[in-house]
Amino acid sequence: MTDPPFDYLLIGGGLQNALIALAVLGRNPNARIALVEQGATVGGNHLWCFHAFDLTEAGEALVDPIVVRRWAGYSVRFPSFGRRLEAPYAAVSSERVAQHVREVFERHPQCELLVGRSAVRVEANRVTLKDGRELLGRVVIDARGPEAHSNEHVVGYQKFVGIELELEEPTTLTEPIVMDATVRQEDGFRFVYVLPLGPKRVLVEDTYFSDGPELNLGLMRLRALSYAHELGLSVERIAREESAALPLPAGAAPPRAGSPFLAGYAGGWFHPTTGYSFPVAARLALHVASTTPESLFDEGFQVLAREHARQLRYAFLLNRLLFQAVSEEARRNVLERFYKLPEPTIARFYALSTTAFDRARILCGRPPRGLSLSRAFTKGLFQ
After folding, report:
1. 343 and 267: one domain?
2. Pair 299, 183 in one domain
3. Does one domain contain both 44 and 106?
4. Residue 147: its pLDDT value, please?
5. Alpha-carbon separation of residue 103 from 25, 65, 98, 111 (angstroms)
């Protein structure tokens, strides 16, 4: 016997589909949702962060229950200057996402949270699970992550190893260091990212913008630990570790309407230059919640998709310039120049909501040291 159709079949239990489920049920408590995740729980093993200016008031209300820490600002460090930015900053953990999604689904018995289950066939209104069960849905949203992203247009990678440390003594660090680029540069642009999650808990992440995806986990872990000691942190143990090599594309097809709908990283609903997904994921989730499955791809979606495609084109251009026109050892100069821009421009860039003036402001002026036209021609930038 075939199950009655769900309103939404959400395939993949990462940030994007978690936010869609929460947004839809917050707006329509009677909606029938099935969320399928092959892992043991939704959310995976991540710590997501966002700037206060990334989200609308509705977006803030949506994510407030999953925020685990907030800060009044953050700093960046470069060899020639350091800067504190006034934008409030916040963190969301996988553990909290999983807990909140589970609690919400328990309050909505018409919904199903199917963890430890994988989809082997995804169609417009039907999903077949590995165990043979078939689910029907008015719309299918597939957000199974960067693994589905084609490598055809990838020009570089953002790769990192983050270690969440438990400390013997409380840290004096009170705000994040979003980018410490004073560290030794190798394998592209390298920086360290630091989040004080509590008096005795700090995340230290060794991060690279590199030409290749290779991860030397042992070396990167040691570098993160060494930085922690240089920062004066008294490390007791590594409580959690996270690593990834995110492909950064130079181009992709614009977002496509229709079911099954590709969302999240695989569908291009992320920031191509930073790998940063939070504001885009919240934006898309709120749109899904504002309509019905039958009208999901109406004019409101077309407006959202056109603006997102415009922002993507600009971000793809920045990726081509960073990886094809600037040598690996000179990429730090690009980011150093960027962080000297006005705070509103920086904020809109991270939110993937740049204005025409922002886009001109980021590119115009004295070019960063290391920009090479000969490298650009060799790498095919102008093809």
Report:
1. no
2. no
3. yes
4. 58
5. 12, 11, 9, 12
Structure confidence at residue 382 (pLDDT): 46
How many angstroms separate the Cα of 90 from the Cα of each of 9, 87, 118, 220?
Answer: 29, 10, 31, 25
The owner of tokens 């790769």 is 159
SS3 state of residue 298? coil
Residue 51 in domain: yes
Question: What is the Cα–Cα distance from 224 to 1, expressed in whole angstroms?
Answer: 54
In this structure, are 198 and 340 located in the same domain? no
Neighbours of 95 (CB within 10 A): 16
Residue 75 corresponds to which tokens in the numbers above?
Answer: 């700093």
Q: Looking at residue 49, what DSSP letter applies? A: E
The candidate with the shortest Cα–Cα distance to 175, out of 78, 278, 49, 277, is: 49
Question: How many CB atoms within 10 Å of residue 200?
Answer: 16
CATH of the domain at 106: 3.50.50.60
Beta bridge partners of 71: 89
Percent of the chain residues past pLDDT 90, beyond the cut: 84
Same domain, 288 and 204: no
Domain match, 23 and 143 both: yes
**pTM, rounded to two decimals:** 0.92
Contacts of 320 (CB under 8 A, 6+ apart): 155, 250, 381
In a domain, 14, yes or no: yes
Model pLDDT for residues 16-50, shown as the tens digit of each residue: 999 999 999 999 999 999 999 999 999 989 999 99
Q: How many domains does one find in the chain?
A: 3
Rounded-to-10 torsion of CA 56, 58, 62, 66: 40
Helices 94-106 and 15-27 pack at an angle, to 10 degrees, of 30
Residue 260 in tokens: 């099954």
In the predicted model, what is the mean pLDDT of residues 302-331?
Answer: 93
Q: How far apart are CA 345 and CA 361, in angstroms?
A: 8
Examine the domain organization and report whether 197 and 239 are in the same domain. yes
Q: Which amino acid belongs to residue 212?
A: G
CATH number at residue 228: 3.30.70.1990
53-58: which pairs have CB atoms within 8 A and are 24 or more residues apart? 53/87, 53/347, 53/348, 53/351, 54/278, 54/279, 54/282, 54/347, 54/350, 54/351, 55/279, 55/282, 56/286, 58/286
Residue numbers of the domain that contains 26: 6-71+87-150+250-308
Q: Which has the closest alpha carbon to 347: 137, 74, 98?
A: 74
